[in-house]
Specification:
The structure holds two protein chains of two kinds. Chain A is mainly alpha-helical. Chain A has helices at 4-13, 20-43, 60-63, 69-87. Chain A has four helices and no strands. Chain A is elongated and about 35 Å long. In chain A, helix 1 (4-13) crosses helix 2 (20-43). Chain B has helices at residues 2-7, 10-18, 24-37, 48-63, 105-112, 155-162, 179-185, 219-229, 271-286, 302-317, 336-347, 350-363, 368-389, 415-419, 425-430, 459-473, and strands at residues 43-46, 74-78, 116-121, 141-142, 145-149, 168-172, 188-191, 212-216, 258-262, 290-294, 395-399, 434-441, 447-453. An eleven-stranded mixed beta sheet of chain B has the order 1-3-2-6-8-7-12-13-11-9-10, with helices on both faces. A two-stranded antiparallel sheet of chain B has the order 4-5. In chain B, helix 5 (105-112) links the parallel strand 2 (74-78) and strand 3. Chain B is 39% helix and 14% strand. Classes of the chains: A mainly alpha, B alpha/beta. At the A-B interface, helix 1, helix 2 and helix 4 of A face helix 1, helix 9, helix 10, helix 11 and helix 12 of B.
Chain lengths: 89, 476
């Protein structure tokens, strides 16, 4: 568990001066980042990382959305023309 | 003239210069005035005088039928690339007034090719961010809709091209920093293989991941610029690629080529993005490609590996900013050490400080084995997974980002920005080349990109796929 003492020690090590408010926010951010990293590294090697992934998640249904490349092309070109002429600031 | 600049590719503009439809001084003048009118905050510094003087020189060369394809073309450069005599701030208070005594090799090579550098583009501070909101000089807005971010960290480089200010720009890419903003702004970009472009003069963030990239309107334009800046450099020992003409013979038949689609990299991707992505895949099918589902099961750990390694390298690289040799120096401080702490505390923004502290945490004695060494071994695993995937396919294609551009109003660290690089950063960990190009638009009219990744040093292959795709897609 990362705490404010760890954060203070790290500010010294990093040669940084932080306000109390910044230190509080930094402690929360680093606690989140380090605990997530710890969890990821602990799990690695003990269980398959992609165990929840199945072929059905490839969303083959979506492949069928654009059956007709011609209409897709027209759609894209219209939007791209808009992009270069009207959308730009 | 403004419309011409907004609508033309670099190659087309070059043709116009050669056939004397306009001069480089005219083109550069328009480019500079568009940059001055720009509402997206894409530029930190404009080099008006220097650019116009260079344009005049280029016109003389063009009149004598001298000069290559880049002669007289206005380009922009990200503000973490050193430019001799021109402020290079890295979008940080720390380097607010830093004027480098030398130029980055990539910049030097662009200048040798007679391109005109019009200015330095805005970015996330020290290239740390996915939104271009951490810049000391203010956030960058998306040219398509100013309520959305331009992406980051090379947001200014992508937005400048999308707004039509210049046909191409240089950026950098440590975890997706040129590809993700290019996708958000609807332009094409390449992150070359690690070692293709010299990093000399690129202000270091994470040296084993950093690579100079290019944003442009087309893959062909990216190839033209890559040819100019790539190749061995005695000032960067990791730069090993031989000089290649990347733009030559880009048009190849994609018939029977195999496109691998990593199933894990589609998880958690927005529906609008998936629809546009599958639309893009349809075009590859129409070009004759075989589509093959592949597995790259690093989705659950790649971003953590990236975060640990990049922060560790950042902590080490940014240790040099102490206010003694150059850069910002804070007032006060009773001792030498106090002065350094104050300088760094005031000179860096929160996100930079967060990454320095995380880096020092993972490098400290107690945590080195558990975090840093673990991350290094998983990085190797990512490289191996890519390597075996390329036994099954020619290129790997996935959405560039899981969402389109997110609202500016969201906090700097939010679920969107944290996830924004998740599909691009594995490529940096493996050192591979990757090109992003627009494959559609979401319901609010914001662009969506897909990324084409090729094996190491096959940058031309990734560009060829993108070029052929853009030929059938049309427009830019």
């Amino acid at each position: 568990m990362f705490n404010s003492n760890d954060a203070r020690r790290l500010t010294d090590l990093s040669r940084l001066e932080l306000s109390e408010k910044e230190l509080e926010r930094m402690t929360a951010e680093l606690e989140r980042a380090t605990s997530r990293a710890k969890k990821v590294f602990e799990n690695e090697g003990t269980q398959p990382i992609s165990d929840s992934v199945t072929v059905s998640m490839l969303r083959e249904d979506n492949i069928e959305i654009f059956k007709d490349p011609k209409s897709l092309l027209e759609n894209l070109q219209t939007k791209n023309n808009l992009f270069v002429s009207k959308r730009v600031v | 003239m403004k419309e011409l600049l907004k609508k033309s590719s670099l190659k087309q503009l070059s043709q116009g210069l050669i056939t004397k439809e306009y001069t480089s001084v005219e083109l550069t003048g328009v480019s500079l005035s568009l940059a001055k009118e720009d509402k997206t905050n894409s530029f930190i510094t404009l080099c008006s005088e220097k650019a116009l003087a260079k344009a005049e020189e280029c016109d003389k060369k063009l009149a004598q039928k001298m000069g290559g394809v880049l002669c007289g073309i206005p380009l922009a450069v990200k503000d973490n690339l050193c430019t001799k005599g021109v402020k290079t701030t890295c979008a940080s208070k720390m380097l607010e007034n830093f004027i480098p005594p030398y130029s980055a090799t990539a910049v030097e090579r662009l200048e040798e090719a007679d391109s005109v550098i019009i200015g330095k583009t805005n970015m996330d501070e020290f290239a740390m961010g996915s939104s271009s909101k951490t810049s000391y000089f203010g956030k960058i807005l998306n040219p398509h809709n100013n309520s959305f971010v331009a992406g980051g960290s090379s947001g200014g480089s992508a937005a400048a091209v999308a707004s039509g200010i210049c046909p191409a720009s240089l950026g950098s890419d440590t975890g997706g920093s040129i590809r993700q903003p290019a996708s958000f702004c609807g332009v094409t970009a390449i992150k070359p293989t690690y070692g293709v472009v010299s990093r000399h003069g690129l202000i270091a963030f994470a040296s084993s991941l950093d690579q100079i990239g290019i944003a442009a309107r087309t893959a062909e334009d990216c190839a033209i610029i890559l040819s100019a800046i790539a190749g061995k450099d005695g000032k960067d020992m990791t730069c090993t690629a031989v000089k290649t003409e990347y733009e030559k013979d880009l048009e190849i038949s994609l018939k029977e080529k195999t496109v691998g689609i990593p199933q894990e990299l589609l998880l958690g991707v927005d529906e609008d993005v998936l629809n546009a992505f599958w639309g893009g895949i349809e075009l590859f099918k129409a070009l004759g490609c075989n589509i093959k589902p592949i597995s790259l099961p690093f989705n659950k750990f790649a971003s953590t590996v990236y975060s640990v390694i990049s922060s560790a390298e950042a902590a080490s690289n940014l240790a040099r900013y102490d206010g003694v040799r150059y850069g910002h120096r804070a007032e006060g401080g009773e001792t030498f050490e106090d002065s350094i702490k104050k300088t760094r505390g005031k000179g860096f923004g929160f996100e930079v400080k967060r990454r320095i502290m995380l880096g020092n945490f993972v490098l400290s004695d107690d945590n080195f084995e558990g975090y840093y060494k673990r991350a290094i071994s998983l990085r190797q695993k990512i490289k191996e997974l890519y390597s075996s995937a390329f036994n099954e396919c020619d290129v790997i294609i996935n959405p560039t980002a899981p969402t389109a551009a997110f609202p500016v109003a969201d906090g700097i660290l939010n679920e969107y920005s944290e996830a924004a690089d998740v599909l691009t950063l594995p490529v940096n960990l493996a050192g591979l080349p990757s090109v992003t190009t627009t494959c559609g638009y979401e319901k609010n009219g914001l662009p969506i990109g897909l990324s084409i990744t090729a094996p190491a040093f096959c940058d031309k292959k990734a560009l060829s796929f993108a070029h052929n795709f853009e030929n059938v897609r049309g427009g830019f």
